[in-house]
């Protein structure tokens, strides 16, 4: 048995141990995303419209969002639920297809570059109803829903 242990010791001394190496690559990816700071719906209320008084009615809303740093974004919106021929319309609640009042909805910015998730960007929306648009409108509550999109 002593001879066997001695033989093992000599064999170990004759063949030194070698370490093996392997590279470990750690990868990650930051996605080019844009998102609204507060994803809740936004309500814009146009001031009361009085037929016979030809006055422009206007309301505004600031909407905050952020985009990944260095990500180009666009801000866009659809024509709304009552849009027709590229025009936006508010519709009389329980009214028919002709009970519409045309309005314009604009955004103060339509593109830009994100600065990261801790830096808010703001877009100012402005809704305008011209005085002539509601002069012959039926009395009642009018509404529309427009989808605002911020996309990389």
Structure description:
This protein is mostly beta strands and 152 residues long. The protein has a single domain, classed as Immunoglobulin-like (Sandwich), CATH 2.60.40. It is built from one helix and nine strands. The chain has one helix spanning 2-14, and strands spanning 34-36, 57-67, 72-77, 88-92, 100-107, 111-113, 121-129, 142-143, 148-151. The strands form two sheets. Strands 1-2-7-5-4-8 form a six-stranded antiparallel β-sheet, with no helix packed on it. A hairpin with a 7-residue loop joins strand 4 (88-92) and strand 5 (100-107). The longest helix is centred in the N-terminal third of the chain and has 13 residues, at 2-14. The protein is rod-shaped, with a radius of gyration of 33 Å. It starts with a helix and ends with a strand. The model has no long low-confidence stretch (mean pLDDT 92).
């Amino acid at each position: 048995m002593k001879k066997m242990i001695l033989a093992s010791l000599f064999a170990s001394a004759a063949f030194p141990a070698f370490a093996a190496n392997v590279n470990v690559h750690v990868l990650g990816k930051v996605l080019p995303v844009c998102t609204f700071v507060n994803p809740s719906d936004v309500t814009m209320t146009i001031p009361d419209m009085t037929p016979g008084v030809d006055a422009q009615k206007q309301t505004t809303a600031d909407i905050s969002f952020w985009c990944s740093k260095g990500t180009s974004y666009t801000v866009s919106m659809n024509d709304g639920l009552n849009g027709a021929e590229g025009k936006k319309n508010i519709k009389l609640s329980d009214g028919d297809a002709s009970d519409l009042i045309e309005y314009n909805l604009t955004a103060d910015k339509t593109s830009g570059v994100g600065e990261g998730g801790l830096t808010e960007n703001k877009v100012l929306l402005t809704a305008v109803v011209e005085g002539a648009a509601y002069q012959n409108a039926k009395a009642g509550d009018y509404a529309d829903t427009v989808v605002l999109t911020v996309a990389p």
